[in-house]
Amino acid sequence: MWRYVLRRLIYMIPTLLLITVAMFILLEIMPGDPLAMYMENPNLTAADMERLARQLGLDGPLHERYIKWLARFVVGDWGYSFVTRRPVLDMIAERLPNTLVLMAAAYVLTLLIAVPAGVISAVRQYSVFDFATMGSAFVCLSVPTFWLGLVLIMAFSVHLRLLPAGGMATLGAGFSFADRVRHMILPVAALSMQSAGVYARYVRAGMLEILSQDYVRTARAKGLKERVVVYKHAFRNAMLPFITVAALQLPDLFTGGVVTEMIFTWPGMGRLFWDAATRVDYPVIMGVSSVTAILVLLSNLLADILYAVVDPRIRYE
Fold it and tell me: What is the pTM of this model?
């Protein structure tokens, strides 16, 4: 197993390399220019623009610029922001913990809602609970994240005045765990509702397929309790396809956080990426995109490892 994990980690290196190449090319051909903000200054001459391009590393051919960026990237020098002139790695290190806290809370809440709902819906197929749960899941899937976030703000912040509309903490107040939790409730709810709808449908479909298998009917015929049949014989096997979805959609909470963090002014990676994209800040965009790519690759590896944990019959060589 450990040999397989090590081999997969080694395979991630060329994959990540190809992703960074694609991102570098996309940034080159996309509309916008980091020097556009300086072009509006009538006092800058052509020589000044050339000097700025040289200082920002935008004066050479594409392949030379990529090789220079990659050489610095692998040693931990991710460059400097064109806008703030701060090290990109410091900016990411400052924002990443905020996003990880938000993602972890949203992911745990999603699983706590989706897994029991999907299992009960499958066991009680065509019941009132099943119709209500799946109907709610379709509604959650249909609601855009930005619209849901605005509705939550209008309902709980503007009208009811129960929760803060944005931010990570109350301005001017010292650190308080309860205050942080209050600020997290709305963005976590916005992130969790759509994911919970997706996961609940996958859990229900997997459970229904397993519950119709012959060995499940045999277990029931032997007189085993329904709880034993469902949770010992059916649940673990039904989790295999769900693990794929749950693990591979981990980065979706990060990308979905772009919209959520903007709406709730959460100082995380999503907001950092949005600000960098609107300012055509190439080093920050490359840094955030690289972190996202690493998360996607690690999520694939996590899915394979969880397969072997859930089903002992699976062995990786």
Answer: 0.81
